[in-house]
Design brief:
This protein is an alpha/beta fold and about 280 residues long. The protein is about 30% helix and about 15% strand. The protein is globular, with a radius of gyration of 19 Å.
Length: about 280
């Protein structure tokens, strides 16, 4: 057990958080103590390939330890129409028709329950904390770049300080943003060249294969280049359709058109996602 405040990267295995990991390991940024990946059980095959690559790279290059949490499986829970505790359905931000005929989205619980809570539990395990023991102040790195400053937010817990190296700021739950003593201000579009410069493969976008926030371009790419993952998303789409027993009166869909996913004609020019999952999910 340690009482020393740690620096921990919330690793989403996307461009930004993966770049932070490698920069820390290579000495371009201060060395983190750990990186934590929450495998929710719904990521595409590209996610698992890149995570395997990172774990092997870590061993071969003495990188900071990567901890993978996978105690929950969102895909199975959605297929079973339950949540991770088995007693209510998992609410993803899927689309449904409101009573007034407009299109609405369901409440999102997946990020908090399947991502953030699992990272928090892993942090407690690192410190060796017993149940009900007070959390130890921890600095949690987030892979958000300077072009996405609107995504910077204060933590909801007093024991957390969120660190944004690509933006040059850190925030706790009460004070104003504080400028980092270190930092590497970067925009998202600068990252591919950094990966190429260091002979590292570029990760794909990190998000669940059935995420309702996908743009049509995302859906079309999944259907064309990862048909097995798209088929899994179609299964989820049909599995969540009828949730009247859960208090939702109208059918639920993964696509904003309120049509079955396998019947949607995707617009190749539509490349804007319909919402933002969170920095935890897709960086």
């Amino acid at each position: 057990m340690t009482n020393e405040q740690l620096d921990i990267l919330s690793l989403g295995v996307g461009w930004q958080s993966s770049a932070l990991y490698f920069m820390s390991a290579l000495g371009e940024l201060p060395r983190i103590d750990y990186a934590i990946v929450s495998d929710v059980g719904g990521e595409p095959k590209t996610f698992h390939w890149y995570l395997k690559f990172m774990l092997q790279w870590q061993k071969e290059n003495n990188g900071p330890e990567i901890i993978v949490t996978n105690s929950k499986n969102l895909e199975k829970d959605l297929l079973n129409n339950t949540n991770s505790d088995g007693n209510r359905f998992s609410s993803i931000p899927a689309f449904t028709k409101n009573d007034d005929g407009s299109t609405g989205m369901l409440r999102r619980q997946c990020t908090g329950e399947y991502k953030i809570e699992q990272v928090d539990k892993a942090i407690r395990n690192i410190y060796g904390l017993k149940p009900r023991a007070r959390n130890i102040p921890t600095r949690i790195w987030k892979g958000i770049t300077a072009d996405e400053l609107v995504r910077i937010d204060k933590p909801g817990d007093k024991w957390k300080t969120l660190v944004y190296p690509f933006c040059g700021y850190e925030l706790n739950s009460t004070d104003k943003p504080k400028q980092l003593a270190f930092g590497k201000i970067m925009h998202r579009n600068e990252l591919p060249s950094w990966f190429r410069l260091h002979n590292l493969p570029l990760p794909s976008k990190s998000s669940c294969k059935f995420c309702p926030y996908h743009s049509d371009t995302n859906w079309l790419d999944l259907k064309t280049n990862a048909p097995d993952d798209f088929a899994d998303a179609v299964k989820i789409d049909y599995a969540i359709r009828n949730s009247t027993e859960k208090g939702i009166n109208n059918p639920i869909y993964l696509h904003r058109s309120l049509k079955p996913l396998d019947q949607v004609q995707f617009d190749e020019t539509q490349n804007i996602p319909f919402g933002e999952c969170s920095g935890t999910c897709n960086t």
